[in-house]
Specification:
The structure holds two protein chains of two kinds. Chain A is mainly beta. In chain A, 15% of the residues lie in helices and 51% in strands. Chain B folds into two domains: 20-272, no CATH class; 301-519, Alpha-Beta Barrel (TIM Barrel), CATH 3.20.20. Chain B is built from 18 helices and 22 strands. The chains are: A mainly beta, B alpha/beta.
C-alpha cells in the first residue's frame, strides 16, 4: 500500500511535466532564420519538426543544399538514456569530420528546464577524422522564447569553444501542412 | 621523348621571338546580356579567332570583374617581355575594318534560339565566317562580307539534341577530332563565350549538350562526339549550368579518357598560343626541401594551404599574396596553349608561392573513371609537363561522387595504386576539393586529403572556430591539416585566422608539409569504400 501511494505520488509529479511539455509550444515545424543564426556551412536551409509523445521527443531535420535534400531524425527520451544510430547535428560540412554510420551516439535523458521552456539534450557522438575515430560531447539547449513563435537552439561541442546558435521561427500550423 | 618535348618548347620559344610584334587590343565592358552587349562580343571574339589564325593580332582586355583577372597584367607582360606594341581598337566597326580581310563572309545566328550561336561558331571556324545577329548584318556587309549561311528559322522549335544532330551531320566530319568545344556556362539572360576565339581558330565543333542522365537524348549524342575524338583529345569550355553539373560532365569526359580544359570564359587563347617562353626562361619552382630530405615533425599542428582553382581566376592579382606560404595549382595544359601566362605567374611569384601539378592528370579529370588502358599514358604526359614546370607535388581531385564541393571526393585503392606507380618521382600527392578522407603513405610519399575547405563567404570567426575544432578533434601531435583555399578568398583575412588558432601551430609550405607528414604518420590510411555515400553513381 505504501509502495502504491509512493508510485501514485510520483505519477502525480510526473504527469504535469509531460502534459506541460506536450502543450508547451515546442511541437510543430520551425524554420531556420539563416540571417540571425550562426552561418551554415554546406547547408542552404534548415527546417526542424519537433513532435512530443509522452517521454519521447522527436526532432526531424529537413536540410537542403542547392538541389540536395536531406532528412534526418533524432530521438531523445526524458526518462532514460538511449543509444541512437546516425545521430544528426547541423554539421560544418567543409570540415573532414564524418559520422560513423554503424555506431550509435549515447544520448543522455533529455531534461525539461526553466518551467518547460528549455529542453536539454546531451550526447556523445562518434566521429571519424583524419587521425581515426573520436567522440564529440555535444550539448544542446532548445529554448522556446517569449510568445512561443521563436525557438533558439544553442549547441556546444566539447571540441569547439564557440557556441553554435540557431534561431528558428515557428511555421504556422496551416502552412506547415502544405 | 622527354628530351624531344623540352627541345620542342625551346625551339618554339626561340621562334616566338622572331615573330612580328604589332598587335591590336580591344577593351571589353562587362555587359554579356543576350539582349545587350553579347551579340557584338560574339562577333568580335569569333573575329579574333580568324584574325589570330596565322599570327597573334588581336588581344582582348576584360573588365575588372571578369572571371579571369589576368588579361590586363598579361597584356603588360606581352609588351614588356615580348616587345608587342598594341594599337587600341575602340569599336566593332574599327575591328572589322582591321580584320575583315581574314574572313570570307558572315553567318547569321538567332538570339531566340541560343544553340544557333554554337552552330554559327562551328561554321565560322570551318568557313572563315564572322558570326553576326540580324542587327549586325549591315555592319558586316559594310566591310565587304557576304552571307555564307543564315541560321534564322532553320532550328526554330527544335530541341537542342535535334539541332546538334543536324549540325553534326553537316559539319562534324570537317571539324577537329582532337579538340571539342563545350560552350556552356550561364543560361538565361547572359552567355560568356570568351574561349570561342580558340574554338574558331582550331576549327572545333561547338555544342552545349547535357551530361545529365535525365537528358538521355543529349547525353547519347554527346557520347558519340566523345567516342569520335582521337585518343588524348581535349574538351575545352565548360558545361551548361542549366543542364547538368560539373561533376556529371567531368565524369563523362573522364570515362572516355579525355581531358577537360575550362572555362567557357577563358579568353585570348588564340593569341596566347602563339607565344612561348622568352629566351633563356626556365621554370624554377621555389622548393623549400631537397627531394630526398628527411624532416622530423615536432609536437605541434602543421597547416598548409593550397589554392587549386584555375590560377588566373584566383587571388593572384589581389593584395596579400606572399604574406603566407600558399601552393598554387598551375594549369599545366597552358604549356601548350598559354605559355606566356605561366611565365607571367612564375615571374611574379613571391617566395611564399609554390606551384604544384594537376588536376588529376595533364588537365582536369576524375581518375576513378579514367579507363585503365588510358591512365598511364595520360599520367606520363602529366609527369612530363611537371618536369617542365619544375613541380614535385601532384594534386588529385575526383568529385564524381560528390555533391558540388561537398561529400565523397575520395579515391579507390586501385586509383591510388595507379598514381603511386605512375609518379615515382613525386614527393607526395594531395587530394580533394572539399574535404576528403583518402590518405596513404608509401615509402616516403604521402597522399593527404584536404581536412578543410575555406568557403570565401564563411565569416572568418567561424573559419577560425572550424579550424580550432579540427585541431581539438585531431588530438595527436603532430597533426597535419591540409586546407583548400577557394579561389576568391582574401589572403589577408587568412593571416588573421591563423593568428587566432589554438596551440603550437605552424604554417609550412606544401613540400615541407609533405616531408614532415612522411616522417610521422599520425593520419589513418583510408580509401573510398563501396559503402561510402555517393551523390552521383556515374554512367
Amino acid at each position: 500500500m505504501k509502495r502504491l501511494r509512493s508510485q501514485l505520488f510520483s505519477l502525480c509529479l510526473f504527469l504535469p511535466v509531460v502534459a506541460l511539455a506536450a502543450d508547451s509550444g515546442f511541437a510543430g515545424r520551425w524554420q531556420l532564420d539563416t540571417k540571425r543564426s550562426t552561418a551554415l556551412d554546406g547547408w542552404s536551409t534548415a527546417d526542424l519538426v519537433i513532435s512530443i509523445d509522452g517521454n519521447i521527443v522527436l526532432f526531424r531535420y529537413e536540410m537542403t543544399w542547392h538541389a540536395t535534400k536531406v532528412t534526418a531524425e533524432n530521438e531523445a527520451k526524458t526518462n532514460t538514456a538511449i543509444e541512437h544510430p546516425d545521430f544528426f547535428r547541423i554539421d560544418q560540412r567543409h570540415m573532414a569530420v564524418y559520422a560513423r554510420p554503424k555506431e550509435a551516439a549515447h544520448v543522455q535523458p533529455a531534461v525539461w528546464l526553466d518551467g518547460e521552456h528549455t529542453l536539454r539534450i546531451e550526447a556523445q557522438v562518434p566521429l571519424e577524422t583524419s587521425q581515426g575515430n573520436t567522440t564529440m560531447r555535444l550539448y544542446q539547449e532548445y529554448r522556446l522564447l517569449e510568445g512561443g513563435n521563436e525557438l533558439v537552439l544553442i549547441e556546444l561541442h566539447s571540441t569547439r569553444s564557440r557556441p553554435l546558435i540557431y534561431q528558428f521561427t515557428k511555421v504556422p500550423a496551416e502552412a506547415a501542412k502544405k | 621523348m622527354k628530351r624531344i618535348f623540352v627541345f620542342a618548347l625551346l625551339a618554339l620559344s626561340l621562334g616566338a621571338t622572331a615573330l612580328a610584334r604589332e598587335a591590336w587590343v580591344m577593351h571589353f565592358d562587362g555587359d554579356w546580356k543576350i539582349a545587350g552587349g553579347l551579340p557584338e562580343k560574339v562577333m568580335l571574339i569569333g573575329l579574333q579567332g580568324l584574325a589570330n589564325r596565322s599570327a597573334p593580332r588581336l588581344y582582348i582586355v576584360h573588365a575588372a570583374d571578369f572571371p579571369w583577372e589576368i588579361t590586363g597584367p598579361l597584356q603588360d607582360f606581352y609588351q614588356r617581355k615580348h616587345g608587342v606594341h598594341f594599337t587600341e581598337l575602340k569599336t566593332a566597326d574599327a575591328a572589322l575594318a582591321q580584320f575583315a580581310r581574314y574572313a570570307k563572309g558572315y553567318v547569321v545566328w538567332d538570339t531566340a534560339v541560343m544553340p544557333t550561336m554554337n552552330v554559327a561558331y562551328t561554321i565560322a571556324g570551318l568557313e572563315d565566317a564572322v558570326v553576326v545577329t540580324e542587327a549586325l548584318v549591315l555592319l558586316a556587309e559594310k566591310h565587304g562580307l557576304k552571307k555564307i549561311d543564315d541560321l534564322r528559322g532553320r532550328y526554330t522549335g527544335q530541341t537542342d539534341e535535334q539541332i546538334y544532330t543536324d549540325a553534326k551531320a553537316r559539319y562534324w566530319a570537317r571539324c577537329s577530332h582532337d579538340k571539342l568545344m563545350l560552350m556552356g556556362g550561364h543560361s538565361g539572360a547572359i552567355r560568356i563565350p570568351g574561349i570561342a576565339d580558340w574554338g574558331v581558330r582550331e576549327k572545333m565543333f561547338f555544342h552545349d549538350l547535357s551530361a545529365n542522365p535525365l537528358h538521355a537524348d543529349e547525353l547519347a549524342l554527346e557520347k558519340k562526339f566523345l567516342a569520335g575524338l582521337n585518343p588524348g583529345g581535349t574538351i575545352f569550355g565548360w558545361h551548361s549550368y542549366a543542364k547538368d553539373t560539373e561533376e556529371q560532365h567531368t565524369t563523362l569526359i573522364s570515362t572516355f579518357g579525355l581531358k577537360m580544359e575550362g572555362l567557357q570564359s577563358l579568353p585570348n587563347l588564340s593569341f596566347n598560343c602563339q607565344f612561348t617562353f622568352t629566351p633563356g626562361f626556365k621554370f624554377t619552382n621555389q622548393h623549400h626541401v631537397a627531394r630526398d630530405a628527411k624532416l622530423v615533425a615536432e609536437q605541434k599542428v602543421y597547416l598548409s594551404f593550397v589554392q587549386s582553382d584555375g590560377i588566373g581566376i584566383g587571388v593572384w592579382t589581389k593584395p596579400g599574396r606572399g604574406r603566407m606560404p600558399l601552393a598554387w595549382g598551375a594549369i599545366m595544359g597552358w604549356v601548350y596553349f598559354s605559355p606566356a601566362a605561366l611565365e607571367y605567374f612564375h615571374e611574379s611569384a613571391t617566395p611564399g608561392d609554390y606551384f604544384i601539378g594537376g588536376l588529376s592528370g595533364p588537365s582536369y579529370m576524375y581518375p576513378n573513371h579514367i579507363p585503365a588502358a588510358r591512365f598511364l599514358g595520360l599520367m606520363k604526359e602529366a609527369d612530363d609537363l611537371m618536369k617542365v614546370l619544375d613541380e614535385r607535388i601532384f594534386e588529385i581531385m575526383d568529385n564524381s561522387a560528390a555533391d558540388g564541393n561537398l561529400g565523397n571526393a575520395d579515391l579507390t585503392k586501385e586509383t591510388v595504386d595507379r598514381y603511386y606507380a605512375a609518379f615515382p618521382d613525386m614527393i607526395g600527392f594531395i587530394n580533394g576539393y572539399g574535404p576528403a578522407r583518402t590518405r596513404d603513405l608509401r615509402d616516403t610519399r604521402p597522399l593527404i586529403s584536404y581536412d578543410y575547405y575555406i568557403d570565401p563567404r564563411r565569416p572568418r570567426e567561424e573559419v577560425t572556430a572550424d579550424l580550432n575544432e579540427l585541431i581539438a578533434l585531431n588530438a595527436k601531435r603532430p597533426y597535419f591539416c591540409l586546407v583548400h583555399v577557394r579561389e576568391s578568398n582574401d589572403v589577408n583575412s587568412l593571416v588573421e585566422v591563423i593568428k587566432n588558432l589554438h596551440g603550437p601551430v605552424e604554417v609550412v609550405p606544401l613540400d615541407t608539409f609533405m616531408k614532415l607528414a612522411a616522417g610521422n604518420k599520425t593520419y589513418m590510411t583510408r580509401y573510398q569504400l563501396p559503402t561510402d555515400p555517393k551523390h552521383f553513381k556515374g554512367y
